[in-house]
Amino acid sequence: MASASVSAGGDRPVLGRSPLSRLPDQILKWGLTVLAGAILVLIAFFFVRLYIEARPAFDKFGVFGFTFDNNWDVSRSIYGALPLVVGTLITASVALLIGVPVAIAAALFVTELCPQKARGALTIMIDLLAAVPSVVYGLWGVFVLIPKLKPAEQWFTDTFHFIPFIGGAAVAGPNYFIGGLILAIMIVPIVSAITREVMATVPLDHKEAALALGATRWEMIRTAILPYSRAGITGAAMLGLGRAIGETIAVTLVVGNAPVIGKHLFDQGYTLAAVIANEFGEAANNPLHRAALIAAGLVLFVLTLIVNAAARWFVSRGQRGNRAAAEPAGVAA
Amino acid sequence: MSAMSAGGVLPPVSPGRKRKDATMRVLLGLGTAVALVPLVLVLWYVAKRGLGAWSSSFFTTDPTGNFLGNPGGVKSAILGTLEMVALATLIAVPIGVGVALYLTEYGKDSKFASAVRYFVDVMTGVPSIVFGLFVYIVLILSGVGGGGYAGWKGSVALALLMLPIVTRSAEVVLLLVPNTLRESALALGAPRWRVVARVVLPTALPGLVTGMLLAVARAAGETAPLLFTAAIVNGTSFNLGTRMNSLPVQIFNDVGQAQDRLVTRAWGAALTLVLIVLVFTLIARLMSRRSRLT
Amino acid sequence: MTIPLTSSQRGTETEQAPDQKRRFEPSGKDQATGAGRRVSIKGLSAWYGDQYAVKELDLEFEPNKVTAIIGPSGCGKSTMVRCINRMHEEIPGTRVEGEVLLDDQDLYANEVDVTSVRRAVGMVFQKPNPFPTMSVYDNVASGPKLSGTKGKHLKERVEQSLRSAALWDEVKDRLDRPGIGLSGGQQQRLCIARTLAVEPEVVLMDEPCSALDPVATLRIEELIEELKTRYTIVIVTHNMQQAGRVADSTAFMLTGELVEVGPTETIFTKPTDDRTEQYVSGRFG
Predict the structure, then answer these.
(1) DSSP H or E segment with residue A207
(2) pLDDT per residue over C207-220, tens digit each?
(3) Do C116 and B5 lie within an 8 Å CB cutoff?
């Protein structure tokens, strides 16, 4: 803003604005800055308060003891979260194994194979998967998926009885597998959306180069699109992982909530998020139990932070690498 | 058959390659179908079983809390959701747009702005139950407002959830406002706050509303943040200072019960909730399609 | 003329119909001079949606000669050339009518597989576009690998192609380094090697030097001079001096139509059509 005070005739500055009229600008700027800074303060505050309330549990069992002891026994006030951590990892792994390939297939189909006219409708439908509230997925899981899939699950585990962890089990109604399956459905939209974005940045040049060499459509995808998108797809998958780790309500309704490490894919299990939702009611009057649940929340928080940070690093590394590829190294022949 | 019947001029293409191409096309199409089948199934079941629960009393009576006999409707749940989400929006949107404004108008290159942006991104990855825990600790354990469960505390948790969504989408939209627009206004001698209020925000408004609607749709469907902040109650209340019911929590509660009528009510409530969320989502999509900026 | 196939030429695509009457006959480009294929365009029309870009064009490309296509921006020269290797149809909403014959084979015939058209008719693009995630070797090998060439044959093919593109000496010690680490001119020669590796009969070049500096351009023009003994070459260029340097014949296009075609010298010194005369003397375009 021009604020020179050149006085042409008289003492009043010609170009200057009075300090009072600049006040709203100052207020706006500093107000918004404070607001933005408040975000940083908030996050720090999160950590601190969570940790303080979780301390009783960490004091009693040690941070490693709490996280890695295999004994979650509410009745005896012993809180070792390993069954929860393992359950979280199992359900999240199942979710990734099922959800990521499906999401990538859908992204490829929509961007490369399907007719132009269907593209918009398909994209909206895939994104709508994210609009369904998690409690509704849970409800559907309990009353539709679990009973309808039980025979198939039993057949599967009987047929493949020789594979450890998968075979030879008695299928519990709610179990790790159903938990992972519901999570898979829930992560498809986000993995697919980001994969689509990543694939859209593949330069037309490379796709044309592959086609001009006589590649079939699939060969072009394999040669030009997938290698280019590798880092971005990894990032997308990790974002899906973060989502799967943190999802609470749908999982707690279908995983069985048994605080032990199940020996089979079709056993009941428990996750960090589910235990908090499930047990918080009864823990309201039990300070140690409550502290243990908050500690579980803290572990969950840290886990998602790490996964999401790694995801973002992958996505940005993909973008950086590909931008560097776009410029030739030198000018000489 | 290979393409060699093309007179021997063109090189042959092995049937193996053509088979592989066809197979992969089918697989990719199947994968897409697999992705969409759950959507269709869920919506169909919710519609089928939910419609059976709908009646005028479903919408006009509160849950009775009776395990046997008449379970009542979900009136307090619907109203509670609307009230709490409205308050959450009132909190999250000004703050979210404010932070986005900071990032686009003042903080494009500073390290501070990068840090803020990074942590807003961090917030999008925080599980919703952790937000609930945080609000429980800060507002309930510490005895704020009498230390009990309250609707407004639920709104705070929902607002925390909405904040990164609003900020991210607002930042994208604000960045799309052409700089030339800002510059011409500034060149006319308008002070910055005027440019923001009279030029930038109105231009970005449709996009901002879209982002807001998507955040609202998300918040309306969330259960975990409300479990130990607003908790659950049977009666309708317009007092956000007391416990408040909500559709997601009501459903969550009813699912766990072994009573048929309660389960039916859960399906009816689920259909209601899905419709509310879908309406907001679809309006947001339609708006973004018509927007001048996107 | 049936030339016995060497093992590297044959590749491993050998699933042939038992009642096949004619075997695949390459035009003997392994030899110093060979019979390249002739390309004949008859009544070619091409559209982008409603936009009529190429209007009933007739043109012949002589075997083992370089034909340049010149004309102002937007005259349809790139579109026309992309119809020869059927890349035009990859863009949604496009349409093609007419015939494109390779010797006597219509490339648009129903039974023709488009991927085999593109193996026979290669293309070098305006901006060098080596695959960024692949090494020099893998870039050149990417085409032959698709048709099953492996092992020793593959290595021979890669070396042969890099030599043909006058790049072998510069990269022979760094075959496994990324293709994008080369300079602009080297990258374009890498793309040429990649195109030659699938053993096409015709090579299309769409303004191959417009992204390169003059030194790199000159090297590629020398290369074109060598390559024409073994391939039929079509080069789209907006640079008339370049057409003068490399082309045997030149065709001038304007708003989707062929205005005039003939020996390069004639086109530039004694053109028959007024519009050609105006374009080559720089009065428009």
Answers:
(1) helix A204-212
(2) 999 989 999 999 99
(3) no
Query: How would you class A220 by CB atoms within 10 Å of its CB: exposed for 0-12, middle for 13-18, buried for 19 or more?
Result: buried
- Cβ of A246 within 8 Å of Cβ of B125? The answer is yes
Residue A162 in tokens: 């020789």
Residues of B in contact with A51 (CB under 8 A): none
Cα torsion through A165, A168, A169, A171, rounded to 10: 110
C48 pairs with which residues across the strands?
Answer: C51, C94
Alpha-carbon distances of C1 from C22, C40, C105, C229, rounded to whole Å: 12, 21, 17, 18
Angle at C220 between CA C217 and CA C225, to 5 degrees: 130
**Chain C contact for A227 (CB, 8 A cutoff):** yes
Residue pair A173/A150 in contact (Cβ under 8 Å)? The answer is yes
Phi, psi (degrees; rounded to nearest 5) at C212: -115, 160
Residues of chain B neighbouring C112 (CB-CB closer than 8 A): 3, 6, 10
Q: How far is CA A205 from CA A225, B61, C73, C125, C205, in A?
A: 11, 63, 20, 8, 14
Flag whether the pTM goes above 0.90: no
Q: Which of B163, B148, B136, B165 is nearest to B227 (CA)?
A: B136
Contacts of C135 (CB under 8 A, 6+ apart): C175, C176, C177, C178, C179
Report how far residue A306's alpha carbon sits from residue C82's, in angstroms, rounded to the nearest whole number: 49
- Which of A116, A205, A333 is opposite residue C183, by nearest beta carbon? A333
Q: B3 vs C116: CB contact, 8 Å cut-off?
A: yes
Chain B residues in contact with A135 by the CB 8 A cut-off are 221, 223, 248, 251-252, 255, 270, 273
Residues of B in contact with C120 (CB under 8 A): 9-11
For residue C155, which of C30, C6, C8 has the smallest C-alpha distance? C8
Q: Are B220 and A133 a contacting pair at CB < 8 A?
A: yes
* Residues in chain B, total: 294
Contacts of B7 in chain C (CB under 8 A): 22, 104-105
B114, HSE (Cβ side, Cα atoms, 13 Å): 3
State phi, psi for B185 to the nearest 5 degrees: -65, -45
Q: How far apart, in whole angstroms, are the C-alpha atoms of residue B162 and residue C5?
A: 69
Asked if C125 has any chain A CB less than 8 Å from its own CB, the reply is yes
Nearest-CA neighbor of C239 among C68, C60, C64? Answer: C68
pLDDT in tens, chain A (333 residues): 444 444 444 555 556 666 677 788 888 888 888 888 888 888 888 889 899 999 888 888 888 888 898 888 888 888 888 999 999 999 999 999 999 999 999 999 999 998 888 998 999 999 999 999 999 999 999 999 999 999 999 998 888 888 888 887 788 889 999 999 999 999 999 999 999 999 988 999 999 999 999 999 999 999 999 999 999 999 999 999 999 999 999 999 999 999 988 888 999 999 999 999 999 888 878 888 999 999 999 999 999 999 999 998 888 877 766 666 555 554 344
Check: CB of residue B248 under 8 Å from CB of residue B151.
no
Nearest to C161 by CA among C24, C153, C84: C153
Query: What DSSP line would sit under A283-332, residue for residue?
Result: HTT-HHHHHHHHHHHHHHHHHHHHHHHHHHHHHHHHHHHHHHHTS-S-S-
Q: Do A333 and C215 touch (CB under 8 A)?
A: yes
Residue A332 to chain B, least CA–CA distance (Å): 35
Q: Given C14, C20, C112, which is nearest B10 (Cβ)?
A: C112
